[in-house]
Amino acid sequence: MLPVVAGQRRLWLVFWRKKDRRRPARGTTDRHALVPIPLTGGVLSGQVRDQQGGALAGTEVSVMDPADRRAVHVETDPFGRFAASLMPGRYRVRVEAGGYQQVTDVVEVSWGEHADMGHIVLGEDPALRPPRPGVFVIDGDHSSVRFVARHIGMSKVYGRFNRFQGQIRIAEPFEESSVDVVIDAASVDTNVAARDTHLRSADFLDVERFPELRFSSVRFVAHGGNRWTVDGDLTLHGLTSDVSLDTTFLGTAEWNGDRVGAVATTQLHREHYTLNWQQTIAKGLPVVGSTIQIQLDVQAIRQS
């Protein structure tokens, strides 16, 4: 047997430690899975793509057991991938993303194994394609402009504007479409008369000096499927600031005319519009939060 010199011994220790680091973590059986495989179950994974091969981030993946109970609900990561640990058994996997047709498949998860669904391709949903070009007028009877604010950091106050009007111009290409909306500031309504009077005062909206809120879009940005960002300028309290609306297109329908629908959300900071009135309570807690959540639910009727 050849003697092991000090240098050789050090080399062997380095090699052994590298091998040891490649061992599966305690409580797992496979070091190659996207997540550790539990001793009592297996792992399910896959990657969701569109028909052009692009990864679909934020896709919802629901895994249902034989009793049709949801065992797992996850969203894909920025690369369209998902992974989940499951007990052994047969599962129904439902994959869905806005603007795409739902895909359902059945998979078997085995003990100590990695069930890879591979690439799951979602096709475009024809019902959610952008409408043909034209001008649409917002239907105030079937639309809403709502907001949510924090009160003393504990509860939420919900309100709305009851009077507004606007136009949506659909262009070709769709990215060149535009939206213009005018809101009557005095129509603010939180279902509490004293609070609404205060909101109309110079402390907040100052409706006598600034009777309208105006939004005009400058850009439509596609994010895949029926999800868009509508960038624009909001004029409120005499000041204009840029706003991005996270928008979901809901499709078209025929009912008393050709209609389109969409929902959108954004967040405003009161300080950007010099709505700086503030009162604090004990421990310096503000009575009204500095950020306001905006929720839009829009239905519009084709005019041309």
Molecular structure report:
With 304 residues, this protein is mainly beta. The protein contains two helices and 18 strands. The strands form three sheets. It has an eight-stranded antiparallel β-barrel with strand order 8-11-12-14-15-16-17-18. Strand 15 (227-236) and strand 16 form a beta hairpin. The longest helix is centred in the first third of the chain and has 16 residues, at 6-21. The relative contact order is 0.12.
Please give the structural blueprint.
Blueprint: H1 6-21, E1 42-50, E2 60-64, E3 70-75, E4 81-86, E5 89-96, E6 103-109, E7 114-122, E8 134-138, E9 144-151, E10 155-161, E11 164-170, E12 178-184, E13 188-189, H2 193-200, E14 212-222, E15 227-236, E16 239-254, E17 258-269, E18 288-302
Parallel strand pairs: 1-7
Antiparallel strand pairs: 1-4, 2-3, 2-5, 5-6, 8-11, 8-18, 9-10, 9-18, 10-13, 11-12, 12-14, 14-15, 15-16, 16-17, 17-18
